[in-house]
Design goal:
This protein is mostly beta strands. Strand 6 and strand 7 form a beta hairpin. It has an eight-stranded antiparallel beta barrel with strand order 1-5-4-3-2-6-7-8. The protein contains four helices and nine strands.
Length: 170
């Protein structure tokens, strides 16, 4: 897959409502290879590997170019060795809402207690139905970028998030 990625990101209310609404769940580990002018991500999702390259956003994090290619698990494991700063560990829950699917990420480790949801859109002004568990929008806030969570994990700035959107520590 490659092309323009348009997505919005939101905090998720405390509790397990998203789990009950989900039609799928997967385990994800991902790391980042240092690069200037782009984000290079290596991801292992369950038993599959992916290489993703994303440009930097010029409009507050709402849209950017994305290239993604499935790679073998062996290739992903070897490329993970090139990643710097550790690995983001999370479970991703997929929740259908209207004609869209929200990806709800429940983070682990130093990012435990952080749960965010993303929805991909066809255009920047496309409307969508928010599930009841969706909270304030954080699109463009650097704190909530997965690559940032490696260098400045949620445990360091948890107090900046309203208590109603802090999940339990794990």
């Amino acid at each position: 897959m490659s092309g323009l990625e348009i997505e919005r990101k939101f905090l998720v209310k405390k509790g397990d409502a998203y789990k009950g609404a989900a039609f799928s769940c997967s385990h994800i580990q991902q790391g980042y290879i240092p690069a200037e002018g782009a984000t290079v991500r290596i991801r292992i999702r369950d038993e599959k590997g992916y290489l993703t390259i994303k440009s930097h956003s010029t409009n507050g994090g709402l849209s950017r170019y994305e290239f993604e290619k499935e790679i073998s698990l062996d290739e992903a494991l070897h490329l993970m060795a090139l990643c710097r700063g550790g690995v983001v560990d999370k479970h991703r829950w997929l929740v259908k809402s209207g004609s869209h699917t929200f990806e709800v990420d429940e983070f682990h480790g130093a990012n435990a207690g952080l749960v965010v949801a993303e929805v991909e859109l066809g255009s920047e002004d496309e409307s969508f139905e928010k599930p009841d568990f969706i909270g304030p929008e954080v699109t463009g806030d650097v704190h909530f970028r997965n690559s940032h969570l490696l260098s400045d994990p949620f445990c360091n700035w948890r107090q900046l998030v309203p208590e109603a959107y802090q999940g339990p520590d794990q």
